[in-house]
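#structure-requests
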Amino acid sequence: MTYSAIIICMWDVKKYVSHRGNSMRMLFVFAMTAILAILSSILFTVQPTHAAPADATWTGQSISYDGKTFTGPTDATATDGLGITPGSKYYTSIDSAPIAPAILSKAYVIYFAPGTDPPTAAAATYVTYDYTPPGVYTNPSSPSTVNITPSAASPTTSTTSCVVDGIGWIVCPVTNFLAKAMDWLFGIISSFLEVRPVQTNQQAALYRAWSVMQSFANVAFVIAFLIIIYSQLVGGMMTNYGIKKLLPRLIVAAILVNISYWICSVAVDVSNILGYSIQDIFISIRNQIVGTTGNSWNVTGWEVVTAAVLGGATALGAGAIAVHSAIVATGGGFAAAIYLLLPGLVIVLLAAVVAILVLAARQALITILVILSPLAFVAFLLPNTEKLFDKWKDTFMTLLIMFPMFSIVFGGSQLAGTAIIQNADSIVILILGMMVQIAPVVITPLLIKLSGSLLGRIAGMVNNPKKGILDRTRNWSKERADHHKARSLATPPKRNAFRASAQRKHVKHMREQQWKKAYEAESEAHGMGDKGYQDASHRMTHAGIKKDTAQAVIDKAFNDMRLSNVRVRADETNLRIAKLDVSMSEAQVEADQERYAITNPGMRAQRLTQHLATRQTEDAKATWDAETKEWESGRGGTAYAAGTPMSTLVSDSHVTAQSIAIQGMRKQQAERAGQIDLADALKTDPIRLVLAGGVMGEQGQNSVLARAKATVSQSYVEDTKNIQDTMDYALSTDIGRLETAFNTSTTLSQRIAYANTIAKNGPPGIAKLADIITTYESSAPATQDLLDFKEVLGMNGDIRKAGKSFDDWINNAKGPTVTFNTINEDIATWRNLASDKFAASNSTMQHHAIDKLTDPVAGDPVAYAKLIGNLTSSPETLRLIKPEIRDRLGI
């Protein structure tokens, strides 16, 4: 466990107590905190070492020796090549590292034996090596011993008692004052915890004050006895039963009044014994952890630690605090600790003042309650005054229980704080440990409330309708009796005369109850037929309408007020917030119940059973759905014999399902045809386009026309995909047959499907695609058909990438009437060819581009050279080109 784990544990305890308010659980968690603190201190207690004559000195976290600075520490391992015992901590100094590897230099190592804390060690071992980068040590020298001054004992040059810059002239005196006040207040708090034992000496002031109250109480008893005697003589004031009930309480109260002083004395003594016993246990455990010589810290108080922080660890006198050497060696954080110390002192000092007031009030209240004890027992006598006795008893016990509870909390905090202090490696951790030790001061007022809650919970365990032992036992007995009664009435009587008689009586009772309900229903029916009843009913209905009308008027007036009255609006807002809070709390309760259901085995089994039943129902429905689908497919129903009614139903189901599917297809195709015709009409008929654009005018017409084009294009795409999906493999791989099919096609969808399939056949396919496009354009197709052919063919990205001529033709870059062959043969198409587009083109089109650029008559040597230059300057692009093209380009 680390220091942070201890702190987090203490924080969780505080948070848990704040939210749950459960005293018993609080005690358990604090006990666990104390145990964890004990284990932590045992595991991490640091053993002290002694100084020796020094040859080497500490400089911060480094060691200075023989003019060299050794840095570290590093844990030695069996594979680091140093030959040092694994677990040793070593510091190294290496001569200036050579520029090139494998060149020897010298390495110097100072190491400490395993288990040694380097900053506190008085001696170390010194070895030199030949060093070859990186990290190769060879040819070790003979080990020699080096004396070293522990960092805690290193000489210091500063003697100031305040190292706080800037406002140290005010911060340091204030901090010292707060530290002294903290030590003084903590001593006062310790003395206030104990309640002085109640002295039985009759001359004591407390006893004399109690005697006065005893006299008043005895007078009250005399008056009570006189009232009882007078009532017996006169009669009428009290019954004999009342006297018999009151007389025992009167005798018991009379005895308790006269021994109340000793009862309170015993209660105070028990509280003190429990408190001191618990405190002694924790102190004994803490002393066993710390030991007589095992302290790496010997803190005497906040004043001493404050002097260390303000003086930067230089204002410490002998016997005040023995600072751990690691803290001084590493700087210890003394300069920065003031930012934790000063606010911590202020907060804890204010808490201590509040705690003193609470504890002082506790001392006074216990004294007053002891004095008033005779009157409290008198109040126990009468039912109307018994609540006063209960209030006295609860308050007295709450104040007494506070001491043992504080001892538990205080002892656990002392253990946790001691564990932190014993293992502190900085002054900040030391201060944190001391703050953990005084944490109980902050929660002292809360302990009074928690101790009172503890009494209430103990009482609730005995008698609570839901959790009390007595009431739960009584309820369980009643439930079991009802269960046996119901089971007996449901079991056939056989030869059991008593059971048969009970069942006859039960049936007779049920019959009489049912007849009673029947008679009441008939009587109500007869009454409803009476005209007077009907008139009264009509009158009541009319009154209800008038009432609803009046209520509507009231609601309307109130709503008007809600709009104008600021106070009402504020109240409604508060109501909504309150309802949201209720919803949130209900959600939290529901979440808690769900968590309980997950962790409770019985609830888990019940919910799993319910889930299984639901899934079984779903399985039955799914089985039925699957079986009906099998019947509709014509593949099911084989288990039924032919000619049987069930077999006929299965066959009819199959026929009906097919008919429904066919009609659905017809409907789909009809809708599609209608959409295509409408789109064509919108594209060719301006009047219809204007009507479809409506009030949006030209913007609406453009939108409608775009949707019409998309509809037609999507139709062609679907038809093309269907043709390609149904095309046989032999046709799709035979370019010649595909060309023939293209030339003999009668629909645009067929031509696009065959063109896409031709393009999939590599370089030969691209070359053939160029030929069939040229042939198609020479057949003078309709302008709209050619444009649609380009548009849908352009949806195939592979064709666009095949070559720049394809992309320009599809995009109408040279104009919609310019043919593909014209674009493909024009040197201007290939003159400004980008290197990436060239690399992405089909190899057939790459050869064609090279032919055009290198043509001796119409070629462009400059553009050709530029293309080669762009390709050679881009290795990533060049790698995409096939070797045969690179060879032809001379790259």
